Amino acid sequence: MILLLEQKEPKLSGDIKITGSKSESNRLLLLQALFGNFKIKNLSNSNDSEVMQKALASKEKTVDIHHAGTAMRFLTAYFAAFEGRETILTGSSRMQERPIKLLVDALRDLGADITYLKNEGYAPLYIKGKKLEKNKVSLAANVSSQYISALMMVGASMPNGLEIELLGQITSVPYIEMTRSLLTQLGIESSFKGQLIKIAPAGKSTIPEMTVESDWSSASYFYSLAALCDSAKLKISSYKENSLQGDSVLAELYTKLGVKTTFLENAVLLEKENKPKPQRVAFDLANSPDIAQTIAVTCYGMGVACDLTGLHTLKIKETDRLEALKAELSKLGANISVTDKSLHLEGVTNFQSEVTIKTYQDHRMAMAFAPFALRAPILFEDAEVVNKSYPDFWNDFKTLGFKIKEV
Ligand SMILES: O=C(O)C1=C[C@@H](OP(=O)(O)O)[C@@H](O)[C@H](O)C1
Ligand SMILES: C=C(OP(=O)(O)O)C(=O)O
């Protein structure tokens, strides 16, 4: 589906409700399967959470998690420790290119029986579930924190718990902290000091319910809208100041781009401030990689030069996000350069109109470019990619007065 998006009104106001964080949801679904029958409130309605739910309920041998990175990584550990279950864990063609070797090696060190069915280091995997009794493992921590979160959650189900030694630079740290906080809320003890994580074995949880905060990565697109408007008053819910999600750093980062955040009861109010825009901004996004695309497009649309660093994980996400950003921003007229871990953009204001953005099967390519419609009409190939994390995305834009046409 190709969508044309237009918005000529530079003043926006509205009230948007976003469902639960997909990161928190997919952790809680796994923890629910492992430790107890607690209810989950405000669960994400994303495709990634749907496939996670289906996979955990499935009795089939083959489990297909499509594009969901968290599901792939979390379930590899889950099925490896599921005594007696034999599983073929597979995903989309892109998932079969996203590396999993570090996690498989760590699980094999713990005694797991996992075989690669196609290419060494990649899904599909053949997993013969076993009781994992060793309790110490080490792995490189600079590729994906999802491997570490997977080991932490499944580690709590092992008879002796798990000690995880992290080697080298640790990436996406808030996601590791999120996993730890959820374990703590379920009464599972853990520590994370320096390069060492210790997880104690869990008992059955007696917690009746857990509530998921709404998704901050999804909120980023409204920050971008507010930054690109002359005036904006957007209320988005349900959010809290003390978030488990690293992407809540948006509230701080976007003050530099003229957006004021006020925390209300259960919501945030985003308002455009009337102050001169900066010439150039620089952000290190190693702790919040999922908002890199949003920020790059906001800066481009504002005519603000930017230097984004800490982007070493972007090449192995839904697509190579650095190359995809370079290609699509260039089509809009940007002067952009990328390395394998950074992006640099000059501030220009001569924008191309009616450009068709390729989305590369990456939900965030569509959603990050959508606010640019405030500058010029823009088209999207495969607009339905948003379903991966935010199925209501285009409808929510419609409620803010954006004109959307299928072409
Ligand atoms: O644990 C998680 O929920 C996630 C961790 C991050 O991945 P990496 O740790 O691979 O950077 C993030 O990009 C992804 O969207 C969700
Ligand atoms: C990278 C992402 O997801 P995942 O790795 O879970 O597929 C994302 O949602 O931006």
From TrEMBL:
Gene Ontology cellular component terms for the protein in this record: cytoplasm
Membrane spanning residue stretches: none
KW Transferase (keyword) present: yes
Domain Enolpyruvate transferase: 58-396
Its EC number(s): 2.5.1.19
InterPro entries noted in UniProt: Enolpyruvate_Tfrase_dom, Enolpyruvate_Tfrase_sf, EPSP_synthase, EPSP_synthase_CS, RNA3'P_cycl/enolpyr_Trfase_a/b
Keyword annotations from UniProtKB, A to Z: Amino-acid biosynthesis, Aromatic amino acid biosynthesis, Cytoplasm, Transferase
Protein's name according to its UniProt entry: 3-phosphoshikimate 1-carboxyvinyltransferase
Organism this protein belongs to: Leeuwenhoekiella aestuarii
